[in-house]
Amino acid sequence: MPVTYLPRVVDDELDRLALPAVIVEGPKAVGKTRTLERRSKTVHRLFRQVEVDLVRADEDRLLQGEKPIFIDEFQRYPSTIDVVRNAADRDVGPRQFYLAGSAGESGDTHSGAGRIITLRMRPLAFSERQLEQPTVSLAELLGGSRPPVRGETALGLSDYVDEILRSGFPAIRTYEGADRAQALRGYIDRVVQRDIPDELGRAVRRPDALRRWLRAYAATSATTTSLEKIRDAAHGGDGRTANHQTAQAYRDALERLWVLDDLPAWLPTLNHLVPLLQTPKRYLADPALAAVLVGASRQSLLSGEDVEPLVPRDGSFLGSLFEALVVLSVRVYAQAASAEVAHFREQHGRHEVDLILERPDGNVLAIEVKLSQTVGADDVKHLSWLGREMGGQLLDAVVVCVSPYAYRRADGIAVVPLALLGP
User: Fold this and answer.
1) N or C: which end of the chain has fewer CB within 10 A?
2) pLDDT digits (tens, 9 = 90+) for 124-166
């Protein structure tokens, strides 16, 4: 049975763009092909070797057919960008080519000279899952007018746990229970057995070591754990670990496959907000992958059982997974609003804010994530401090939580359930 298409935030981004070509990049199974097929009249599928061979013999095949033309897995033929760019030189009309890729170099490295733009596509944000109608717009919060915040949702903690485990991969989330967990494990198997060897250009000598490294990485979700500590935590029963060079090769390949989605540290231009920690926060593309890698279940998460402490962490693993779900959603919405997303933490940890969204003009929106229904003074102390430090440059401050209500506190800080936050 075909999977029902869920409209994506990136659909609106694609509708607004009037450039000749757009590259959409992201992890496998995220929905790129389905999204771009719906708006294209001709499709070239380069994930099929026979198509690559035909294009290699005559690359003008990529330009044949009625436009818009969609070239899937474009990185399989490295000259695709040059072919499309040259075609755009001859005809600058809008929306002629769509390209999708699940591996390889980021579109930021392509020299499209303003004719090709790259969009990132992530797993389904919470609002894209159509469980609730959002009442609070991230774009409006970024506008700086401090709009009214209101709304009510019946979704509670167990619903968020269900969504963490269900995943944001459109096809995988249609399965139930054990079948869905098996599909997620199959996704990881493909990464280990096929995708990583393809990226490295050689077989993985010790697949078990790669799996342990991925599990250790998953266990550090929403933390700033160093890569060295992740490597040390990934030892097997024999005490052996991947050496530094091998671990770095894993990380680089997984980043190119979009399986890792670390959140960079915010480095503001305000000199008095230093020294700052510059280590990124660790995230996988989808919190469901992290959950299945460490063996977390609905029962264990809701009962408060924690995963094996491979690395030290503050708070529960469920709190980290909920934060990962919020970060995934906010990054989708922020991209549509042309805002960069980062985290903020002083080196000694005195002050930290989970998410900083920065507009092109340098003004910011600050977001804290709390796995709680109520928000007290202690939950907003870092947001209040940041407001005093930044003054008018802080557009708004928000706590995203599991409360049933969206509202503004007396101090002006917005409290928003994840279910009610949208683009």
Assistant:
1) N
2) 999 999 999 999 999 999 999 999 999 999 999 999 999 999 9
Sign of the dihedral defined by the CA atoms of residues 54, 57, 62, 64, in that order: negative
Bridge partners, 99 (sequence order):
23, 71
Please report which helix (H) or strand (E) contains residue 401, including its range.
strand 394-401
Ordered by start, the domain boundaries in the chain are 9-120, 127-422
Residue 23 backbone phi and psi in degrees, to 5: -100, 130
Q: Just give the CATH number of 9-120.
A: 3.40.50
pLDDT tens digits along 301-317: 998 776 655 566 677 89
- Residues 280, 70: Cα–Cα separation, whole Å: 34
- The answer to whether the beta carbons of residues 357 and 33 sit under 8 Å apart is no
> What gap in Å lies between CA 378 and CA 399, rounded to an integer?
12
Find out whether 97 and 84 touch, Cβ atoms under 8 Å. Answer: yes
Sign of the four-CA dihedral 315, 318, 324, 325: negative
Nearest Cα residue to 395 out of 336, 422, 355: 355
Angle at 194 between CA 110 and CA 233, to 5 degrees: 95
Mean pLDDT (the chain) is 91
DSSP of 113-174? TTSEEEEE--SPPTGGGTSS---EEHHHHHTTS-----EE----HHHHHHHHHH-S-TTGGG
Phi, psi dihedral angles at 161 (to 5 degrees): -60, -45
9 φ/ψ angles, rounded to the nearest 5 degrees: -60, -35
3-state SS class at 261: coil
- Predicted confidence at residue 107, as pLDDT, reads 39
